[in-house]
Amino acid sequence: xxxxxxxxxxxxxxxxxxxxxxxxxxxxxxxxxxxxxxxxxxxxxxxxxxxxxxxxxxxxxxxxxxxxxxxxxxxxxxxxxxxxxxxxxxxxxxxxxxxxxxxxxxxxxxxxxxxxxxxxxxxxxxxxxxxxxxxxxxxxxxxxxxxxxxxxxxxxxxxxxxxxxxxxxxxxxxxxxxxxxxxxxxxxxxxxxxxxxxxxxxxxxxxxxxxxxxxxxxxxxxxxxxxxxxxxxxxxxxxxxxxxxxxxxxxxxxxxxxxxxxxxxxxxxxxxxxxxxxxxxxxxxxxxxxxxxxxxxxxxxxxxxxxxxxxxxxxxxxxxxxxxxxxxxxxxxxxxxxxxxxxxxxxxxxxxxxxxxxxxxxxxxxxxxxxxxxxxxxxxxxxxxxxxxxxxxxxxxxxxxxxxxxxxxxxxxxxxxxxxxxxxxxxxxxxxxxxxxxxxxxxxxxxxxxxxxxxxx
Length: 457
Known about the structure:
This protein is of the alpha+beta class and about 450 residues long. The protein has one domain: Endonuclease/exonuclease/phosphatase (Deoxyribonuclease I, Chain A). Helix content is about 20%, strand content about 25%. It has a 6-stranded mixed β-sheet with strand order 3-4-2-1-20-19, with helices on one face. The model has no long low-confidence stretch (mean pLDDT about 90).
């Protein structure tokens, strides 16, 4: 359980500090009671499970954790609440942990010495958003099996960026329009403010009329592709016949100089992180993800999101087929922020491809965001019914926990209003103290000793 020594009243505490500590203590008492009832409801049938027989796995996107926005987690109040929630898991995947780990280190100190974590480096590039993937786990409840890695895509299987293929016109490429056509005009666009003016917040695509010509940049070359039949007049030579004009043949390609194209084929926006754990008799390999978002109303970006999920599940399934030959008792799960739209949407269909299954107990949850209307966070397992000998995927429970019913509640707004120095609303401000996602969890049976003994000759 977390350490609370920092909440002890001191003779040097002023009135405001004393009041804050007392408030945090009372909220923690209420939060602890709510968590106890959440995981083991009073009067529930059947009675609460024996935690020595199970492992509880969680996933939580901690909004921009460590970036300091709106003061960040500027005092330990919210860190105590977050630690209290995390302490109820045995293994938890965390997303949106930023490069600066000072806040995260404070959180780990509150959780105590039995807690460890493994983190990726920061994902480069704009879509990566300066984030890390993190697994935190309780060493008394789960064991790291010394296998970890980041998942990347093969060169011939990368994700196509939403903008597709684009040729840079600078410095020497020129498009000539037929008959002096002028394409200048007013077009639908999405804008944002910058430097006192407006800039495009999304590409604007203007269709070209038929009959345009393209002046190529210096340094282009015609490529005759590998395995084209040729006549050889001598060793190391080939006679090449090129048509005039050079066009319309499958054997031919046009190579542009370096940096002529935007980089449209990409790895994952944030590199998935795969870790192997064991809890009791249960071996489980877990991959945490934070899938590319883009915007819901941009079809190209939505397709990039869907494709990223699809390629993720395909890559993990391929890895599972290969590696589980050597350890067939292990399960493979993927969890995190998938930015799933909802049941029946192509993004959900992409997650449930390549043999991955979302448990029905999680499908029935209305949503994992604070408003409870988005299915962003998910947990899925690869071929859960596949024979794994003595072990099986026995789900004890699954749900999400809404902490805003107990801390930073809507009724608490007058308490915190003096801390909100910007024009942001209280409902937004509090998501930077806790998060705009709710933690999702699943509890699995971890004791298969009886099945193991039954299988002995």
